[in-house]
Amino acid sequence: MNIYTVKTNSIAKSIGFLFALTYGLFIVASLQYFYSVDSGDIGSYLKFFNENATAGLENRSIVGDGLFRAGVIILGNYMGIEPINVLSTLAFVISTLLFAIYAAHIRSTKYLIYLLPVYCMIFFSPIVSNLFASNIRSGIAFTILMISLVYLKGFWKYLFFGFSSFLHLSMAPIIAFYILYQVTNYTFKKIGFRSSFIVPMLLLTISSLFLVAFSYVYKFNVTLISSSGVYNVLILCLALLMIFTNKKVLKNVYGFICVGLILVYLFGFVIDISFARYIGFAVILYLFFLIEKAEIGTIQVFTLGYIPVFFLISLYTVSNNF
Predict the structure, then answer these.
(1) Do 252 and 289 form a contact (C-beta atoms < 8 A)?
(2) Number of CB atoms found within 10 A of residue 71's CB
(3) Has residue 254 got a pLDDT over 70?
(4) Where in the sequence is the domain holding 80, given as residue range(s)?
(5) Which residues pair with 223 in a beta bridge?
(6) pLDDT digits (tens, 9 = 90+) for 3-51
């Protein structure tokens, strides 16, 4: 490796790191805005922390939301800062970390120029940025899950899978689809069966229906749809774009999980249950599919299809918050 190559790589890494920091600051600014207008989960969290500022942790739950709230209180006491600053710090760390992970993988692909526009649009889209700025607990859990998917293997992967779902139960379907992919892939290879779309799609459809039915019956992670019909139609178009732009999406683990989450959202929409956060997760996972397996044509088609979605969702978000 010559000096020119080393310098080029160093410059690219520095630029990627600066962009990641910039994105983290953008997320913090968004969080502060949500706090100022009492929107998202921020307002409810801070109301709780203000009302329980002097309360102890003896009788608090250590599962999911209780674990997160206890962690924020402990960090605030240890660092000597207010809960809003703890939440801002957490949002900055997870958003910067995930942005940097994607930046590192995009930098190493030969389709860097083609991926940069959709990479920026996805991360700055409200359906993704709100995962870090508003829904912080699920954002932390998803970041842990993504680190496990990308970097960990064996025991440690499944340990962190468990921890992410322990922190937020919305990670459970993602883990379920990951296991389904591994089992399906192993079984197909064992029996010599080849099916790149129809059979995996059928298995995902059945699994998604089961997850939605389970959530509906047992009121697991269920909220009613509160967004407008136009917004949901827009999300439907985005979902169809991710499923049918490239049928090879189901041969990649990130694409497989992405389609599963999309189906959960669509089936939930039919029975008036909102799984809106899964669209943000699905888009991030689909980007990893584009990085790993997609061809130039797929990247170009998805980018062209995502441009109107990005602007319309951004316009919808701005019109509802300003």
Answers:
(1) yes
(2) 17
(3) yes
(4) 3-321
(5) 274
(6) 545 555 677 678 888 999 999 999 999 999 888 877 767 777 777 776 6
Identify whether the C-beta of residue 293 lies closer than 8 Å to the C-beta of residue 255. yes
Tokens of 311: 């602007």
| Number of separate domains in the chain | 1
Secondary structure in 3-state letters for the chain? CCHHHHHHHHHHHHHHHHHHHHHHHHHHHHHHHHHHCCCHHHHHHHHHHHHCCCCCCCCCCCCCHHHHHHHHHHHHHHHCCCHHHHHHHHHHHHHHHHHHHHHHHHHCCCCHHHHHHHHHHHHHCHHHHHHHHCCHHHHHHHHHHHHHHHHCCHHHHHHHHHHHHHHCHHHHHHHHHHHHHHHHHHHHHHHCCCCCCHHHHHHHHHHHHHHHHHHHHHCCCCEECCCCHHHHHHHHHHHHHHHHCCHHHHHCHHHHHHHHHHHHHHHHHHCCEECCHHHHHHHHHHHHHHHHCCCHHHHHHHHHHHHHHHHHHHHHHHHHHC
Find how far residue 298's CA is from the centre of its chain: 21
| Residue given tokens 């888009």 in the structure block | 283
State the CB neighbour count (10 A cutoff) for residue 240. Answer: 13
Residues 6+ away with beta carbon under 8 Å from 66: 60
Q: Which residues contact 98 (CB under 8 A, 6 or more apart)?
A: 132, 143, 146, 284
Give the residue among 55, 123, 73 at the shortest CA–CA distance from 95: 123
- In contact, 241 and 305? CB cutoff 8 Å: yes
Burial level of 117, CB count in 10 A (0-12/13-18/19+)?
A: middle
- Is-contact 60 69, C-beta < 8 A? yes
**pTM of the predicted model as reported, rounded to 2 decimal places:** 0.89
For residue 59, give Cα distances in angstroms to 13, 117, 148, 195, 301.
46, 48, 31, 52, 53
